[in-house]
Amino acid sequence: MSGDLKTQVRDYTEFFMGTVESIDLEEIKERPLRIDEGPVPPLASPSRHRGWLVGVAGAAVVLVLGLLTFLTRQTTPEAPAVSQPSPSPTVTTPGPVPSTPIRVDRWTGAGLLGCEIPSGWVQVCGPASFDEAAMYAVTAGGPGLVAVGANGLDYSTREDDATPWDNGANDAVVWTSPDGLTWTRVPHNVVTFGGDGGQQMFAVTAGGPGLVAVGRDGAVADREGHAAVWTSPDGFTWSRVPHDEAIFGGEGEQRMVSVTVGGPGLVAVGFDRPAEVGEGDAAVWTSPDGFTWTRVPHNEAVFGGESRQMMLSVTTGGPGLVAVGTDGDYGGRPLGEPEGDESAVDAAVWTSPDGFTWSRVTHDESIFGGPGAQRMASVTAGGPGLVAVGSVTGDLTDLHPLQRHHFDAAVWTSPDGFTWSRVPHDDAVFSSSNESIPSDAEEVMLSVTAGGPGLVAVGLDGVDDCGWDSAVWTSPDGFTWSRVPDARICNGPYDRMLSVTVGPFGLVAVGEEHYPGAAAVWNG
Amino acid sequence: MVDQEISTDSFTDFVRVGEPRLRQALCAAFGGDVGRESASEALAYGWEHWERVSAMPNPAGYLWGVGRNHARRSRRPRLIFPVPPSENVPWFEPGLLAALAALSERERVTVMLVHGLEWTYSEVAELLGVSKSTVQTQAKRGMAKLRKRLGVDDER
Prior knowledge:
The structure holds two protein chains of two kinds.
Chain A: H1 5-18, H2 25-29, H3 50-75, H4 104-107, E1 122-124, E2 133-141, E3 144-151, E4 172-177, E5 184-185, H5 190-193, E6 198-207, E7 210-218, E8 226-232, E9 239-240, H6 245-248, E10 253-262, E11 265-273, E12 281-287, E13 294-295, H7 300-303, E14 309-317, E15 320-327, E16 346-352, E17 359-360, H8 365-368, E18 374-382, E19 385-392, E20 408-414, E21 421-422, H9 427-430, E22 443-451, E23 454-462, E24 468-475, E25 482-483, E26 495-503, E27 506-513, E28 518-523
Antiparallel strand pairs in A: 1-28, 2-3, 3-4, 4-5, 6-7, 7-8, 8-9, 10-11, 11-12, 12-13, 14-15, 15-16, 16-17, 18-19, 19-20, 20-21, 22-23, 23-24, 24-25, 26-27, 27-28
Chain B: H1 2-30, H2 32-48, H3 50-54, H4 59-72, H5 96-102, H6 105-116, H7 121-128, H8 132-150
Helix pairs in contact in B: 1-2, 1-4, 1-6, 2-4, 6-8, 7-8
């Protein structure tokens, strides 16, 4: 005799939970540590936890680093950071070269202990204002720097799809900094940053009344969200542009994921996805001032096509504006996850003279396609004209589905936005150091900017047995790239750099730590 | 030494109540293997950072987030619920296990905790860090999806 459905759920849940062994204190205290190499003795008490061990080791590293930094900047105050040769004359650096010595006391704060970072970079980690949040983007502006993101223990990214993870608790968050080292979170205001469903700022630029941020508003799981825009005169005071369903909304979900000054004033790009998994089109919005927005009418030949098209980044350059992203879908699942169809995804480029009229660069399989998936995540003016960075999976057909989480970093260049070339693959620069776990062998570029020696890209690198860590690449010209070395030891917290810019005193990257989940900032 | 003992006692008390809650919620969300592994990882994290975690207004809720993030990064096979031996348990609708697995993470957690383990809405809301009304909505929506998928109409 069957019970009603609730009774069946109760009976099954009781059975299921009965199959899972409870966790006792000894198991908790003796659990192998993730952030140190080699065996670690059992934990005896909170006072002997691994943070203390890492802290001691990290203190020595940071003291040396801080001393070196101090000495370098004191003796050559006009020189750029140690890791940054003079900017190439062929590249325009959108910000001043570092000229003011940074106070050494900030570089040796307790928050720096234990952070494993690319050589020449210093991570600002630990402030309470970073807790339970992620920084998706950073720009020079306002009091110096402005970063945007979202709060909540949620690591869904701007192009995340088909993940029913809970975004309803997210609110948009803004941080400001005068120098990249000291960060302040703009006080939460539910009217501006919150509301029903989740709110996330994915990108920010200096423009309009001062600063303009773009993102999304609404529930992800139900695909009911719409694009959203915020403005600020100074980085401290923010206003939400009132929602207009005809511009920011529509059927399904709309997201703005990148914004730049250009065209009539401002241009934002993103995508529009209906309720059907695996479908969607690229989308563009324009504004003269940051307050009044217009959606560029849909043109199926340019923004659409089979399955799904996404614009992920836009910049001024080429004929006026250039956007990059992807064409294709992973079978309705996140890239790299089991059962995804990576072979159906190619990189894609769009150009526009004015922000209103767009063209799709003709697909060339040898440049934008190939075996596996190709994704352009970020584009900037620099190098020979334009440089786009992202990731490629290579041919995964012989791998077990569970080993498909395999990415190599990739770079494309163009003199004009119309003609593109792929920088030849170099294992030493673009492939993960993780060889023991093929399923975690990932090295991904997520953001690029003109700066440092010419161009700087940031992202993540898979590290043996601990997920990934932040990664930085540099190039003098867009064609020749080097990976900034790091200790490549297990750090544990799944750091990744999501955005990089040139700040008042040098390079600044922002991102997140997933373990347990906090915003993160690096200064280079 | 006294502080250490107090801290250890405090953590032991927390585990006594919090361990089953975390384990059950994470297992409902991610299955038995990943859920238990993630609960263990979250509790180990709590032990290491107990001074900070214990000062939080909702330590269990915070560790739920830690465990959830760990589980999402585990890249294990898709969630599969174990099939009970037919001789020992009541009859189930064919497809119940697949239907549970097909719910969204939050719907599944809510349905299994509320209807499976008879947690109150408030208890679920506190652990997940959401409002009580959200839990009610998710539980209702989850049950509706189960009924629709299984073709069951047992609401009276």
